[in-house]
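Annex B. Sample input.
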Amino acid sequence: MTFAITLTAVAVFLSAAAIVILAILVSAIRSDDRAKNLTGAPRTRAEQATRRLLGVGVRTPSSPVHTESDLP
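Annex B, continued. Sample output.
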């Protein structure tokens, strides 16, 4: 019986931790997207952690995108 209670407590703790981490990531994604600052360095640690976790770095201006009308 104590094993079941312990297992349930661990499951609840891990679920709560996952929800908290997800909430932090979602809020950082929304604030970073709203500020439209992906061309600059992250402003906060939450934005920095979110970019690292999602694999998004700092976007740099690149060469212009060519369209079909630009081709000879």
